[in-house]
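Subject: design request, 212 residues
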């Protein structure tokens, strides 16, 4: 079941990439890259779309190989989310949405989380997303997350992601720097780091991002 969900999310990202103006607010990208720590290929497929003026979806899938088979992309981790704006409930909630999110992949059971997202309008080229998910299935405890992305110059941009899982007290972060190299093409360098239970050393990722 989780493999089917992951493939669905990956397909949604590709459809968002190919949809162009067909779907309002749609976007997507494909990120072939190299894991410099474990020495294998990795690909992220990411996409989102506005289903209406109140409802939007987002999803990504990470496809990973291993050091023993560096180009065999058999490992999958995926996240998918649907969010509904609460702006019509109260003007004070115009930047807040109720959300349902799925996390899962190979090697473990999937988790559904319920909560809220805060996403204020910071202007063009700037994004802030704060997530609070107090409820999770399969024994998953509360999760809090912050994502900040911004354009540094016409060619350069950067982002920071931090996920904190209250149970078992783990922290996952991604730091990324992007350089525009063409129309819809960016080169990127990323560092992924986990702390807490099962933590390891930082993982450098370098690759190319194709999308819009």
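Subject: RE: design request

Done. Sequence follows.
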């Amino acid at each position: 079941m989780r493999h089917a969900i992951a493939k669905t999310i990956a397909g949604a990202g590709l459809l968002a990439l190919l949809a162009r103006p067909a779907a309002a607010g749609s976007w997507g990208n494909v990120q072939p890259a190299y894991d410099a720590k474990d020495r294998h290929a990795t690909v992220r497929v990411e996409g989102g779309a506005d289903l209406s003026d109140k409802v939007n979806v987002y999803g990504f899938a990470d496809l990973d190989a291993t050091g023993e088979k560096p180009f065999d992309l058999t490992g999958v981790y995926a996240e998918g989310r649907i969010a509904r704006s609460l702006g019509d409930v109260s003007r004070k909630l115009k930047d807040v949405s109720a959300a349902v999110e799925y996390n899962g992949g190979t090697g473990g059971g999937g988790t559904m989380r319920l909560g809220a997202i805060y996403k204020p309008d910071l202007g063009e080229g700037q994004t802030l997303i704060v997530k609070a998910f107090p409820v999770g299935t399969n024994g998953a405890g509360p999760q809090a997350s912050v994502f900040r992305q911004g354009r540094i110059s016409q060619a350069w941009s950067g982002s920071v992601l931090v996920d904190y899982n209250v149970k078992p007290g783990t922290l996952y972060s991604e730091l990324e720097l992007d350089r525009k190299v063409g129309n819809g093409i960016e080169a990127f360098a990323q560092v992924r780091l986990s702390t807490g239970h099962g933590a390891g050393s930082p993982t450098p990722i370098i690759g190319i991002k194709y999308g819009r």
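The helical segments are 2-19.
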